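User: Small ask, check this?
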Amino acid sequence: MATAVFPNAHKNYINGEWVEASTKKGIENRNPANTDDLVGIFPASSAEDVNRAVEAAKNAFDKWRLTPAPKRAEILFRAAEIMIERKEDLAVDMTREMGKVLAETRGDVQEAIDMTYLMAGEGRRLFGQTTPSELPNKFAMSVRAPIGVCGLITPWNFPIAIPSWKMMPALVCGNTVVIKPAQDTPLSTYHLVQILAEAGLPEGVANIVSGTGPDVGAPLMNHPDVKLVSFTGSTGVGRIVSLACAGTFKHCHLEMGGKNIILVMDDANIDLAVDGAIWGGFGTSGQRCTAASRVAVHKKVYKEFVDKFAARAKKLRVGDGLQPDIDMGPAINETQLQTVMKYVEIGKQEGAKIATGGNRLNKGAHAKGWFHEPTVFIDCDPKMRICQEEIFGPVVSVMPMNSLDEAIEIANGVKYGLSSSIYTRNVNDSFRAQRDLDTGIVYVNAPTIGAETHLPFGGTKQTGNGHRESGAPALDFYSEWKTIYIDYSDHLQRAQIDNATT
């Protein structure tokens, strides 16, 4: 909720300074495990603040793009070193504002460290191509060129990792950025921008404007001086972002929803598959775009898997992620918790059976947070809504199947295509699955989560629009290819006209 800003509230970071929002109002950031814990108050910014930030980024662009890429990279390297020093503090703050358990927030910070080191290394590569010309005394090559001001809109579930996925490749390519963090988890992004500033990032190169999607996100993606927009969030909002960018032909990257699946074949290591399904389904309380919210199990091992999976899910300890004995934290907010509860009721109405869970937790240690039991539906039909629609919570639907062909048909029978997994000891089946699963990421004998920063991350169908984050492919989105021809023949050469073979 919006409230008057008190003196210790956070500010926007624009042109190297922490400045108050033009509205003089803020948004409370509260701990989802204990809403009495006020993490901070962050600006409820407006289009006026966005305009100031974009102007600062635009003014800083020429000097930053002319800074040699290895020098840009040295700043990123220093930022990674600072993150290592502060990893535990960053993780604790993230657990307070996001809710996931401390082991997971440490992993979130580590991912940002890995991405920052990776892109620092790219500053001495940023390879183009050199190639022989088809004409004599002519040189041909291609180089990467920065695009300009980048508008970055990030989600709440990975509040320092995903901002690093977007900021680091953008910066090393020579772009300047304005980032709008999720209003539920802005503190982690604030920490990241502060660290970049301490590492020596020049004024105006990275700017942060906090606020809601309509008040900050919309004016950012519609701003005429923003040349590129990268968005991670729901498919519905991603469609709005895509339409906003289309009118002025902005570069647009969308990373959206998922309805990911684990396939458990009859020759699988069942205990290993259960381990993967527990981590894939209930890690981050299921609030991952890569969460394994579906499991298709061969009928020969279905009962064994379901019995073990439900028993393990029932034993998961739910609570404050700062406590060392907790396995799963809360939902991010009341709205998300209500969405989870709605889908549990939908599953019941559709005829799926609850093997464990199904209820909100709101008593005792759970009284002041947004908690829900780990929930397992069994005997599900692949066409049920709980098997088709993204829930983004601790709800997993288990379906029986008879063969690899049926399993792949079930896996591909959703509108999303982010991540999939198969558990099998059959090398032939594993390679068929890798080939035929229509997802951007495929795991064999591992859950649907666990992406590494040096490989491309993204999906097919309504999960994305063809671009990838992480790895070298991220550079393709944050740079333009410029092809250069240098003719030193000292006379006119007309390419294909003078290179005719007949």
About this structure: The first strand starts at residue 2 and ends at 4. The first helix runs from residue 47 to 65. Residues 261-444 form a domain with the Aldehyde Dehydrogenase; Chain A, domain 2 fold (CATH 3.40.309.10).
